[in-house]
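seq/struct pair 1
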Amino acid sequence: MLKKFFLTCSGVDKNIIENCSDGEQNKYVGIGATVFFTAVMATIAGSYALFTVFDNLSAAIFFGIIWGLLIFNLDRFIVSTIKKSDSKWKEILQASPRILLAVIIAIVISKPLELKLFEKEINQVLLTEKNQMTLDNKTQIAEQFTPEIANINDEINKLKQEITTKETVTNALYETYIAEAEGRKGTKLLGKGPVYKEKREKHDASLAELNQLKKDNTAKIQAKELAVSDLQKNQKLSETKTQPIIANFDGLMARINALGKLPWLPSFFIFLLFLAIETSPIFAKLIASKGEYDFKLEDQETAVKTWVKQQVQQREKMLQTDIVVSKKVYDDISEEEELYTYKQKIARDLMKLQADSFYKKQQKML
């Protein structure tokens, strides 16, 4: 049962291979087994690759099986269409497009399995890239909000500086009228005289202005601090919204790019392994000598070609003979007097009818 299945996988003519020796059958059983297991590996590789895209196990398995069947059909077609001949160069030339196709299939099959085999290393590369992307993203978002926040903070500092400057002036006026009262400066007369009262009034006026300035600037500072807080919240919100995009940066293309940043030698040897598996049925047929199956297949194909050629030649001869006979028949008929008289009578009647019809039309026009 298994032998018949692998023979089917190899694409051989069952009617021919059943009449061949066991050794010849085993050769094609090996080729069929290689084709089958390559398709199995393609199914696994395709399922994993599609799982990284759809993130759905059922869909990945379903489309992976379809992909495996496609690879199986291609491999079976490649192997079954290579014919043995007496010239090795002719065989190599015949197999070259199929070898190229096998190389492409090997690349497609090996790449998803490489992604799975080096999954931990790829995750490390992706983690590093995600961290860098997070930092870059925060920097880019900060560049959108930082200038405005800095401008508002400068305005807040100016308002605070105004209060500080006014406090300095007011404190200086306070010191001036106290020193006047104590006789340390100004008139240097102890007591609260007219000069003291004048300086006290200036201080009181400055103190009232200071209190009003504090009230006004405090309200402005609170409004500006609230604006800064809103900008900072929007900045955090932008970072929160963009973070899931960075966190999900682990799709198929991202993993392939991450794989390219790893040392190439292990990946290259895995590719060579699948290339050897994929091309082994082709090279097995190229290297092997012309066997019993090849001779019988060539005999059958030659017999069909000869039969078709005979049929074509017979049809050409029949056509030529029919043309010659038809020409002779019509030549003989053309010389018969009875046929000539009959056709002459019909032609005369037809011309009479045409003349009558023309006369009636002319009569209607008049």
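seq/struct pair 2
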Amino acid sequence: MLMTTTSTVQGREVETYISVVSSEVILGANVVRDFLAGITDFIGGRSGAYETKLSEGREVALRELEEKAKRFGANAVIGIDLDFETLREGMMMVIATGTAVKIK
């Protein structure tokens, strides 16, 4: 399945706009990861633990988005938008939305 953040696909025509599809993934971070990230934040640098968790959330959200689009009979999802939110201490949410379409 073709998945893109753009609203068009170069060289391909959208035959049918089917539906908006969305996926929400909530992830918990553990105490050790929070502690290590806090140290990284204090001394500077990147937090590999949180980067890994965000990457995991993004992958799961996109996979679920693709599955929902397939159930609608789509062969592509265009205009994908990813949002990352902190719900509360130790909880992150990844939201993926897009338009399920059939392209020629």
